[in-house]
Amino acid sequence: MNTLSYGLLALLARNRSSGYDLMLRIQPFWQAKHSQIYPLLSRMEEQQLLTAEWVKQTDKPDKKIYAITPLGEQKLQEWMQLPAGEPVSRDELVLKAFCLWITDRDTAIALFRKRSIFYQEQIHYFEQAIHKMSDESHHFGSPDFGLYILRHKALGTARSNMEWTTWVIDMLKNAAIPEVPSEPQHH
Fold it and tell me: Which end of the chain, N or C, is less surrounded by CB atoms within 10 Å?
């Protein structure tokens, strides 16, 4: 079992779902593609961690709906007792920031401005999402407590990242442009 498997079980512990819906619902927590999810669902079905039933649809192809089993719930409980692994972060901007010396200042500023807009949108989204949550979600034991604290984490991260991009943009705007060395004179 890998982390994605446990994430899928956790989503199914909340409610039954199709593989496609699971793929959409896992994205905020863990990036995964169809090619990863469907084989895992099949394996977990073979291991009796979940069940599946086909639902007939008139306008669309039939779909498979998955549900967690008591054995799946037990595995999920066991996983919750284990310590979490170290965080993993992959952000292309981090790699590009490392390489800023090979581009011009306007390109660098544009890169960070675009990301700054992204963070502004995230801040707005998470502020609104938190505001819409019920008071019950603020309390441990509520099914939405995890979502409440994760939205606060995402908001804090977006604010911190926004502060960083603003700082970088200010540094870039105020930076002296290095002089290009002149060609040596040969006599």
Answer: C
pTM of the model: 0.77
Helices (H), ranges, the chain:
3-14, 19-26, 34-46, 70-81, 92-98, 105-132, 145-174
- Count CA atoms within 13 Å of residue 27 on its CB side: 8
| Residue 63 in tokens | 């779909």
CA 63 to chain centre: 26
The pLDDT profile of the chain, 187 residues, written as one tens digit per residue, is 899 999 999 999 999 999 999 999 998 888 888 899 999 999 999 999 999 999 998 888 889 999 999 999 999 999 999 999 898 888 999 999 999 999 999 999 999 999 999 999 999 999 999 999 999 999 999 989 999 999 999 999 999 999 999 999 999 999 877 665 666 666 5
Q: CA 18, 9, 57 angle in degrees (round to 5)?
A: 10
**What's the token pair of residue 51?**
């069940």
Torsion angle, alpha carbons of 154, 95, 87, 121, to 10: 10
Q: Are strands 17-18 and 63-68 parallel, antiparallel or unpaired?
A: antiparallel
What tokens does 54 get? Answer: 């086909």
Q: To the nearest 10°, the Cα dihedral for 129, 131, 134, 136?
A: 100
**What are the C-alpha distances in Å from 87 to residues 3, 29, 32, 83, 119?**
12, 12, 16, 12, 20
